[in-house]
Predict the structure.
Amino acid sequence: MLHLLAISPEKQSGGREIQVLAMMGIMASNPHLNHQSRTARTTVICLLRWAKFWRMLAWLIGAWTFSTACAMETVEVEQSGGKFKIRGEIVVEAVDGGMILRDRQGKLWPLKPEEIKNRVTDEVPFSLMEAAELGKEILKQLPAGFSVHKTKHYLICYNTSKAYAQWCGGLFERLFRAYRNYWARRDIAISAPEMPLVAIVCKDKQTWRRIAGPEVGTAVDTIDGYYNLITNRIATYDLTANPKSVARSTTSRNISEINRLLSQPQAGQLVATVIHEATHQIAFNCGIQQRLSDVPIWLHEGMAMFFETPDLRSKKGWRGMGDINLNRLQQFQNYLQRRPDDSLYTLIANGNRVQGRSEDPRFQGNRGALDAYSEAWALTYFLITYEQDAFVNYLKFMSEKKPGRAESEPQKIEDFESFFGDLKSLDQAFVERMQREIKRNARRFR
Ligand SMILES: [Zn+2]
């Protein structure tokens, strides 16, 4: 059985304690810990709440244990004055009785010991919901008027036109196929997801606020999509209803008209946002990265940005995959004018985050975050293009990272250098290469 967190049973019996209580405090205060994108003119900022997520991980250093059982657990929970039962499998368990449970819809539940009123282990093995059952359950959680469109790997839950849901399904499937093929050609196997990948697609801003508001708060009016790390779902809305994207068209659209509208240059960044979030979802569900593992942010984000350039012209392929991302390159050009000498070091080590002293300064504030994103993209592009074998091996190494374990700053640097060599030499080669790319592409900048 493929675990969501891909922990092999023989490696789960470390017997070490988990200090999950502190972690759950953070998670409980952010019950919808998520990963979201904000469209700021032409640039996507993801990651608004990642820093808290990583700080949470920092408290887990050296103290965790994973469940070896795949049995179904029924847990009676009391939270915020209400009582309810959750059926799922234990992903991580603390000696103080706290735990992270994964329910049959794939949602993670961090539970403090005092919230757990009773628990019973069934004889029945744990199983995730099949598509039909999952679809029905999700519809119960959404406002009236939603339907489900099923594709090979996705459940699109929508109240848009059927054509728009089909357009989304087609886009995600093409992304999935292109992503899998891209890595297969580089000797990385993308596994099939354990369960359908869920996307919630809202017809207008009103529905969007109702669905996304409780998860992302006030950011709801400035973002166009997000991936929720806890529910494992992505959410977005009908981009053709966004005045930024296109001249509004008729209400009864077919797929080719939607494609035409969203192929316009002004819609490119909106579509890129959705692709970006869908890429995160694929990575977390198909063996590239594990939810709750300490994979560096630059790598998470660099990978998503590497694939975010949409190619709506092709119905089968994805010709733009891995192309230069002009928005990011232009931002990186800007950043190079004030880039400090230790920029690569801080991007890779993210020391403050790991040590839990403060939130990661590289991804704070609009200006700083844009710089960090541009450098994360540039580094990923550089490594995939010019250090491909080492990058593939590094990616495989990172995919093995276990949930709940955070590495120290020196360890992260050591790991990185073991694949790519001395950081200083690499930094020099990196900057030189990217300056050549800037020169080559500058005429295309806005
Ligand atoms: Zn992202």
Remarks:
- The CA atoms of residues 12 and 66 lie 5 Å apart.
- The radius of gyration is 21 Å.
- The longest strand covers residues 82-93.
- The pocket of zinc ion is lined by residues 35, 46-47, 276, 280, 301, 304 (CB under 6 Å).
